[in-house]
Here is the input.
Amino acid sequence: MFSANYLEFLQRFNRMKTQNAKPFLKWAGGKGQLLKEFEIRLPEEVRKGLTNTYVEPFVGGGAVYFYINNQYQFDECHIFDVNEELVLAYTVVKHDVEELIEILKDVETTYLQLDTEKRQEYFYEIRNKYNEFKTSIQPQKYNKAWIRRAADLIFLNKTCFNGLFRVNSKGEFNVPFGRHKKPQILNQEILRNDSALLENTSIHLGDFSDCARYVDEKTFVYFDPPYRPLNQTSSFTSYSKDRFGDEDQKRLAGFFHELDAKGAKLMLSNSDPKNEDPNDHFFEDLYPEYTIDRVSARRAINCNGERRGEINELIITNYKTERNDLSVF
Here is the structure.
């Protein structure tokens, strides 16, 4: 029988092994720059190890998931997304990371040896093949063909313009070629660390509301929905073929209320309409009884460099915490 101190040591050691776990894809709206703001607003139950389950209904690139699952101890995690390709990629990283790495080694070696013109041809060849064989994910039917598709997704993400994932109404990846001099297509350390961290995690394809079955009073849920556009020209909600509009934001607010009634601790981030219109009370009207904080963030992806300035974003919680700066940053 192991002592409590030894078990605690093992837990700390395992977390240290995956401390470099971080997103393996670049994702528009990724939350890496806001991790400190989320950290200082975590509920005390998470800090004290009293929360058994972590749930993220819009996992996206996973910056918050990878950070929180590494820093804190959960019995289980559940990540969801409606993006089939994203669910496929997470599943492959969890179950077949070494085979994925071998494919990406060959792809990276081939690509970096080409001149710009040949790289562009190679990129569109992969993109056309990727779009031609669009997939319909059924997690219970996982097969080895997924590994090659995940490799193609990572390649396209690392070599396309601005490192985006964007699809059209047909679900086709439509980001053009990016002229990166020496893109890092393969990062073995990150992929292996991510795979290890995913061991306690179930990966789900589905709507955010599907997570309800895993939520109770000992659950922490972080919502990162597609952001409400600040104006008509700033919309970027094309992470999947389905759009996320105001009616979806309202449906999400209703679901937030439902999970609050279960006793779960909830955190949600979104854009701040007041950046453009001080009289826009959209989120205050949706979440009137909850804590709404405004934090500064920098636009990470915008084709107009002059529009990449500081803006406010919202962090909404159904609890209050003492928000003191932490020494980990």
Remarks:
- The beta strands are 53-56, 76-81, 201-205, 219-223, 265-271, 291-298, 310-317.
